[in-house]
Structures are given as structure tokens and as C-alpha cells.
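Backbone-to-sequence.
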């Protein structure tokens, strides 16, 4: 497993690393409507030198895992970075989902090749990764043009897709929803924080 939840970690295979920031960091959700919703807490930073980006998350509530879901050349997937609740991460570690059981809905960051350099929406529509897609809207993330859209498959998903800053690769941030229990509200916080703190970095 590639779970990373605290301390400083380094993966010599992909040069991606995680660290805990010493200072207190604040962020404001795009869904927030007033300063009363400002969240402030110690943050961890996941950084990928290979793909040139980083984002923050709360290590008290979430675990970052970049090893469970393996890349696939068939669909041009280069890497998947999953954000799990501590509870879900512990279940995965214990083998609760072995034997073909579907992993729970969560937040993920995926990087895909785009060898044809297709426009974002056209890339989504020709891909087999998203099931039924709808509600495409222009937005921005990390100062770049992006597209937000909904998709339906095993779960109902919120997606934001945008291009890498230094390559033709495509990055997709996905929030999968079950519409029952408290998981959606918990993972909404992780999704908002990834989106609001996502930045491109140099090696």
C-alpha cells in the first residue's frame, strides 16, 4: 500500500513526496458564502515532482494513497492519487475490499496522457472513463482554464478537468458520491480543499 498520512515520506520510484506543513494554513471553500466558513488547521502537503503539482489536505481526517490503484496503459492513465478517510484507509489496509469488492466512493486525482492533444471536453466525450456525462461548465483551477462536469457510473461524480502546465497531460479531480450516510459531506471537505489548494510546482 502507498498510504501516507503524516510525517515526511519519499517514494524513490516516482519522486512524489508528502510533508506536513509547520504553519497553520487556511482555505475557503468555493461553496462557502461567508468568512464564517473559513477553515484553519495544520495541513499536510502532497507533492508530485514527476507531474508537477501539489495540494493540501487534513492529515487528521484523511489519508493520501498513490499505490492502491495502478496505472493502465490501455486508457492512458499515468497515475491515480486517492484521498480516503482514515476509516476507509484502515479497511483497505486490512483487506476488507479484497476479492473483487468495489472500493468506497472517495476523492481522487488522476493524470492521463492526451497524445492527440484533444480539447478538454472532446477528450472527456471520447473517453470510456466517465460513463454518462452532463452539465459541462467552464471554470478555473490553479489559474488555468478548466471544465467542471457531472458523470454517472458506479457512483455519481463531480469532476474538474484541466491540462497540465508543462505537458499535454490531462488532470482530473473527481468527487464520487453515494447520496447516503455521512460520507458525501466528509469527502466534500477533501474535494474542496484539493481544488482550492491545487498548484503547479517546478521540480
Amino acid at each position: 500500500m502507498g498510504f501516507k498520512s503524516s510525517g515526511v515520506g519519499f517514494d524513490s520510484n516516482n519522486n512524489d513526496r508528502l510533508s506536513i506543513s509547520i504553519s497553520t494554513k487556511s482555505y475557503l471553500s468555493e461553496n462557502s458564502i461567508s468568512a464564517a466558513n473559513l477553515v484553519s488547521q495544520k495541513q499536510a502537503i502532497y507533492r508530485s515532482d514527476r507531474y508537477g503539482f501539489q495540494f493540501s489536505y487534513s492529515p487528521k481526517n484523511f489519508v493520501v494513497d498513490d499505490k492502491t490503484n495502478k496505472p493502465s496503459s490501455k486508457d492512458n492513465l499515468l497515475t491515480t492519487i486517492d484521498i480516503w478517510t482514515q476509516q476507509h484507509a484502515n479497511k483497505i489496509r486490512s483487506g476488507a475490499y479484497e476479492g473483487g469488492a468495489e472500493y468506497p466512493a472517495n476523492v481522487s486525482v488522476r493524470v492521463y496522457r492526451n497524445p492527440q492533444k484533444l480539447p478538454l471536453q472532446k477528450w472527456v466525450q471520447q473517453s470510456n472513463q466517465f460513463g454518462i456525462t452532463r452539465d459541462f461548465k467552464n471554470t478555473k483551477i490553479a489559474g488555468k482554464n478548466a471544465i467542471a462536469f457531472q458523470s454517472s457510473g458506479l457512483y455519481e461524480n463531480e469532476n474538474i478537468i484541466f491540462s497540465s502546465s508543462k505537458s499535454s497531460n490531462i488532470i482530473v479531480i473527481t468527487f464520487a458520491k453515494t447520496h447516503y450516510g455521512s460520507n458525501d459531506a466528509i469527502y466534500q471537505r477533501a474535494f474542496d480543499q484539493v481544488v482550492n489548494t491545487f498548484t503547479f510546482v517546478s521540480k
